[in-house]
Amino acid sequence: MARNRIDKEDALDKHLGLLKLVQILSFLVVFVAGIIIGLAASSHMNQYFTSQAKLFFTNNVASAQISPEDGNCTTIPTPCHTLDCLSIDTFARPNNLTHSMTDEELFWRASLLPYKEDYPFHRVPKVAFMFLTRGPLPMLPLWERFFKGHHKYFSIYVHANPDYELNVSTDSPFYGRKIPSLDVEWGTVLLVDAEKRLLANALLDFSNERFVLLSESCIPVYNFPTVYKYLIDSEQSFVESYDEPTRYGRGRYSRKMLPDIQLYQWRKGSQWFEMQRNVAVYIVSDTKYYTIFKKYCKPACYPDEHYIPTFLNMFHGLLTANRTVTWVDWSLGGPHPATYTAVNITESFIRSIRNNGTQCSYNSDTTSVCHLFARKFDPSALEPLLNLTSTVMEF
């Protein structure tokens, strides 16, 4: 009996030991299988997410691809050919004028001022020539001759009717220089909108230091080096701003502008201004006084003759020379100045504009060079003007 009990106990112990061994082996098999399955799943997931990331990246880069000719983003010469839309060159010197910004967005963007005074790139100060026109530029060949050989020192911006296409050759300095424009109506605040639109687009290029507003009937009366030095070296802007105690001046003031604009602050001046960069920023940054003019300065009040002269007189008068550098003849009277045709264009006439014996202020001194540009010139005046460029205007 005792022997049988011992044999049964030994058999039970062997059975339990075998059972534990099977359990251990089963656990090991499950554990190893789990590891193998986990590794396989991990590899598959890595491949999946990697492929998805590549697909996402490729699709987004492809959808954002902009060639240097079509947009303001530059392509970085890397193996991936990624785009660097935030490069300092793209930000500070956009090479394309096309954008989809509203005026509100554009003016905000143009009003940005860096606190740091020195530039992190080589900067050659440029003059921004801003042409406000209904359509064609009849004096374009004259301007092309004026600009020839000086491309590093100027920028061109054209505001024309939205449906007008500026068809010029690819080697013209006017090629691709039309900004996103809106309709303009003479005598209304829409003219001020166009002026601010030109200034804002020009301000996007941090190389632009001076800003001159011109019309399609304007001409230069000096060569480019003379104009460039005169403007870049000037300590003040050339914005006409004067008090005219007649119905054409004070008579256009509305008492509804009180208390923000008072009669003694009201000014009038030529629409055709020239200004330095900080003054241009002040203009595009203003909302309050522009809104007042938009609401209360309506015909026979003309915002383009009063808004900028009044605004600068109120806040930045010391920054302006209180004169214009664009000659015009108002001797005939009426709402528009005299227009000169081919029969009027003579050497003595152009010389009389260049130096008519008057003196004007320039950097706390006086000079006989007071007008760099002139208007209004009929398209028929182009040929005789071209004949005088080398002998009188020296370009």
TrEMBL record:
The keyword Ligase does not apply. The keyword Repeat does not apply. Keywords: Glycoprotein, Glycosyltransferase, Membrane, Transferase, Transmembrane, Transmembrane helix. This is Glycosyl transferase, family 14. It is a single-pass type II membrane protein. Its main location: membrane. One of its GO terms (molecular function) is glycosyltransferase activity. It comes from Turnera subulata. InterPro entries: BC10-like, Glyco_trans_14. The chain crosses the membrane at residues 21-41. It is found in: Membrane.
